[in-house]
UniProtKB/TrEMBL annotation:
KW Metal-binding (keyword) present: yes
Native source species: Palleronia pontilimi
CDD domains listed in its UniProt record: nucleoside_deaminase (cd01285)
Name of the protein in question: Nucleoside deaminase
Keywords on record: Metal-binding, Zinc
Length: 161
């Protein structure tokens, strides 16, 4: 596990995700979280939080993006890909990343600056996840956080990630 510096392409994708999340918030979206999957410098899939659409608590933006990338590639293995997201992934999304083989993460807002309502296992950190992983896990957090934090710094919201 290593903390990393995001690439210029990852920063560009994160900037687009932040703009997209801000648009969702203006449209009244309760949990305006946006994620993307990158293959090198190319963004191959996007996902918006869809929990509210069908009342499905598993449709977090990261899960939606992972599913879209797998469908696009025609396989479930995303080794070598990067997950970029506007909010630090919850425990479920970190697990989905591991199952998909994604070992690189870039996120904007995260703990401790956002309310615990976005997380269920409050004692677990990214370091805990990385230590438990059976492969490398690299991440860059709090990247461009000031650009998006106001959407998520609402205290314990109970909002769906």
């Amino acid at each position: 596990m290593a903390q990393i510096e995001p690439t210029e392409a990852e920063r560009g994708t994160l900037a687009r995700a932040i703009t997209r999340a801000q648009g969702l918030a203006k449209g009244g979206h309760d949990a305006p979280i946006v994620a993307a999957i990158m293959d090198g410098d190319d963004t191959i899939a996007w996902g918006d939080n869809e929990v509210h659409l069908d009342h499905d608590p598993s449709r977090h933006a990261e899960i939606v993006a992972i599913a879209a990338a797998c469908k696009h590639l025609g396989r479930h293995d995303l080794q070598g890909h990067t997950l970029v997201t506007t909010l630090q992934p919850c425990e479920m999304c970190l697990g989905a990343m591991a199952f998909a083989g994604i070992a690189r993460l870039v996120f904007a807002a995260g703990r401790p600056h956002v309310g615990d309502g976005y997380f269920q296992f409050h004692g677990l950190t990214l370091d805990d996840f990385a230590k438990a992983a059976d492969r490398d896990f690299d991440w860059a957090g709090h990247v461009m956080e000031d650009d998006i934090l106001r959407l998520y710094a609402k205290g314990d919201t109970g909002a769906d990630g």
